[in-house]
Design a protein that fits this description.
It is a single chain. This protein is an all-alpha fold. It has helices at 2-11, 19-34, 36-43, 45-52, 56-84, 86-106, 110-119, 121-138, 144-163, 165-173, 175-196, 217-246, 251-275, 284-301, 308-334, 340-367, 371-404. Helix 5 (56-84) runs parallel beside helix 7 (110-119). The radius of gyration is 20 Å and the shape is globular.
Length: 405
Amino acid sequence: MAAEGTAATASAPLPDKRQAPALTALLTCAMAFSMLQLFLLGALGPRLVDELGISPTVLGLTTTIGFGTAAVLSPMGGRIVDRIGPRRALVVLLVVSAVALALIGAAPGAGLLLAAVALGGVPQALANPATNKAILASVPPARRGSVTGTKQSGVQLGAFAAGLPLAAVAGGIGWRGAVWTAAGTALLTGLWALRTLPPDPPPPATTMRPSLVPRGFVAWLAVFSLFLGSGIASVNTYLALFGVRELEMGPATAAALVAVLGVAGIVGRVGWSRAARPGRAEWLPGWLAVGAVGAAALLAAALSAPPLAWAAAVAVGVFAVSGNAVSMVLVMQRAAPGRAGQDSALVAAGFFAGFAVGPLLFGLFAETGRYGFGWMLVAMEFAAAGAVAFAWAVRDRRGRAGRSS
């Protein structure tokens, strides 16, 4: 890990104090746009279901297709980023995000909507390896945890943007206008990346064979991310629809639930990533998953006490959403030289696979209005993530003790 950071720094000078905030802001925006379509489809779900005449199951299928594509492409995306460099990868990410969002806004029905969402899987596959490589190239080791947590919070910034300002725009000019506004902003951010980021260094000369199969700690984190992503994606996709159909909220109020989740996720990701120091970071994913189980229980309880939905949204952001940021900090702490992009992509592939599966399963309950059973399923997925995380932490501690004895 240190070797990779040293090599990267040698080819790209560290930013000065004035440049560092701009780099962090740019990476945060890139993460936001990489998954903005997920949050827009969730926050605008009630409008889409009514206007396009799609069912809740099809709404879940949009997430399944988008993240299924991202899961398949992620291992290849990691190799691409390692070869072409973070600057080119981030520009491609933002341009493709703009095109996918523009197509979603133009969709007359389910067909083009699903195709556009599949295209949106490309920036998702590039996001984590590209931003992680940019951090290794330009951020001193002492600040990487903090910057990683901040840029990972960009995903939740996207949730906030979808749930509040873009939902407000949709109320004024329609949901299509809101999505096209997001597309234009993504394109402008791509131009910003092109002008701001330093040129990519030449591709590394390495004899290391790339692997498409996660091994060691990467495999454990990928399985943890699979279960975690299943639960998070179900909440993201169906929270607003749950608020409208079961809690008697208006569309704008239900979209605000997604915004609250996004703000809580920003705070949680930044805070927990800063706390994820070696020796402590290994245990954090398990404890965050335990908190996420409690969040799912609050969602189920909201059927009887609707105000609990707001507390549940906060808890999902603080605990469940933060688990992904901590897993990326662990990758950057432990990746072998030249492997940061590939390892990040393999862990992200597990996360995206969970995003593909979770909403599809939850949609079976949402279709029949059995949201209580759906939130129980989410609680089980978070519990499974916690079990995997604690099993790895125990195994890792024993391995370290054996090597030191």
